[in-house]
Amino acid sequence: MPVVPLLPDPVTYAIPGFVVLILAEMLIARIRDRRRFCPRDTLTSLALGLGSTVAGLLTTGLVYALATWLYQFRIFTIGFAWYWFVFAFVLDDFAYYLFHRAAHRVRWFWASHVIHHSSQHYNLTTALRQTWTGFVSISFVFRLPLFLIGFHPAMIFFVAGLNLIYQFWIHTETVGRMPRWFEAVMNTPSHHRVHHATNPRYLDKNYAGVFIIWDRMLGTYEPERDDERPRYGIVKDLGSFNVLWAAFHEWIGIARDVWAAPDMKSRIGYMIAPPGWSHDGSRDTSETIKARWEARQQQQRGDAWKQPTSSSSVEDRAGAPSQAA
Amino acid sequence: MTQLYVFAGSLGAILVMTLAAWALGLGRGAAIASAEEACETAQGMISGFDAGEALLGSDGRAALVHGKAGDVALLKMHGARVAVRHLRLPLTSQATPDGLRVDSGDRRFGTVLLRGVTGY
Question: Is B47 in contact with A231 (Cβ distance < 8 A)?
Fold first, then answer.
């Protein structure tokens, strides 16, 4: 058993920085575009953030206890040298990618994660709109293999805090694009705007936490286009600032669907199939939305093809992705 | 005890930031600018929706967009953004002195007032 250093919770120390940056972003919004914020949305996001902190206080101890129990079955005993922190940070970020992908593809996880996507705004307060029900959705299972490998729970909880802090600054429209090398490796405001968008092209893309390379490697990367501004929120926006509804609406939806489902297979489907799945196919999943959009794009291209050559060429060029800065 | 301080500090910070957003006038005055914008928004927000004619409230806070498939998009300003519900005809609506009140069928989305509109 390695000597365990006393590691602080980095998120607690970052809170004053969060506040300063949010106030700075508000001042910039006042100058550039006042619609980037709305006081009621801000209040909802921050209240959800505070509720998440309280929920975390109640459940983190249980997860830590589980992690410590699993740690006794570890394959290796990994120490606390600085380079192990680097390894842990990278592996933890991959575990985050897997969790995040599941959180968009499995309704049980989505019910917990949707809270983070429920704002139609995209600013730094959106980053703080975090889940209240992560423990219920057992989203922590994605990090458990790290303890079995041999990373001490204290180290993983520490690097997970750093990961969360990194993700704060990417929730903004204030930053356009970072230098090309940075955009190639790191998750950035541009990449994450795509993730928060409901445009069919952007749906279910860019799951990265810190390193965008996971999306590039695993086929879920989509660049932000200058000719397609992201529309933020969820496919069926809440249309309400009710904090409790934002926190629990999808869980209530699951309960209603499971109750009304005609058979056991449908009941299970309503819990673990992708969001939007229904036993009779009457609802939209991201696949059906994308397929409908692609069919329409093809139809429009076909219509353009029938036009005189010069005009169709112009349209094609207008639709081409622009170069990243 | 430390956690209690963090909680109290966070609560104070929330109030400060919300007041700052309000004092800076953020999100104020946002509206749907035109019937064309209402159509574009409805098509963008509802998968497969083909917009036809649009009715825009005189204050730009709400709009009703008829779809070519006999469906309807009900738009309302939700803070500084537009939220939408996809409805089928006939609508549950009520003509009032202020305009047409349309029931979204969703309790939390609420009833939407199309100011100055008398019918659909």
Answer: no
The DSSP string of A43-108 is HHHHHHHHHHHHHHHHHHHHHHHHHHHHHTT-SS-----HHHHHHHHHHHHHHHHHHHHHHHHSHH
CA distance B9 to chain A (A): 9
A148 Cβ under 8 Å from any chain B Cβ:
no
Query: Rounded to the nearest 10 degrees, how much is the dihedral formed by the CA atoms of B70, B73, B74, B80?
Result: -170
Helical ranges in A123-188 per DSSP H:
124-128, 144-149, 153-168, 180-185
| Integer angstrom CA distances of residue A139 from A109, A134, A151, B53 | 7, 6, 19, 45
CA distance A38 to A108: 30
Say which residues have a Cβ less than 8 Å from residue B50's Cβ, sequence separation at least 6: B43, B67, B68, B69
Q: Evaluate if pTM is beyond 0.95.
A: no
Nearest to A23 among B20, B29, B48 (CB): B20
- pLDDT tens digits for range A224-251: 999 999 999 999 999 999 999 999 999 9
- Tokens 């293999």, located at residue: A145
Three-state DSSP class for A269?
helix
Give the CA-trace dihedral at B117, B37, B65, A288, to 10 degrees: -160
Which secondary-structure segment (H or E) carries B72? strand B71-78
| pLDDT band for position B2 (cuts 50, 70, 90) | confident
Q: Which residues of A touch B6 (CB under 8 A)?
A: 12, 15, 53
Largest CA distance in chain A: 75
Q: Give bridge partners of residue B54 from the DSSP assignment.
A: B65
CB atoms within 10 A of CB A298: 10
Is A245's Cβ below 8 Å from some Cβ in B?
Answer: yes
Interface of A with B in 202-231 (CB under 8 A): 231
Phi/psi of residue A190, nearest 5 degrees: -65, -50
- What is the pLDDT, as a whole number, of residue A308? 62
Report how far residue A109's alpha carbon sits from residue A116's, in angstroms, rounded to the nearest whole number. Answer: 12
Average pLDDT of span B37-46: 96
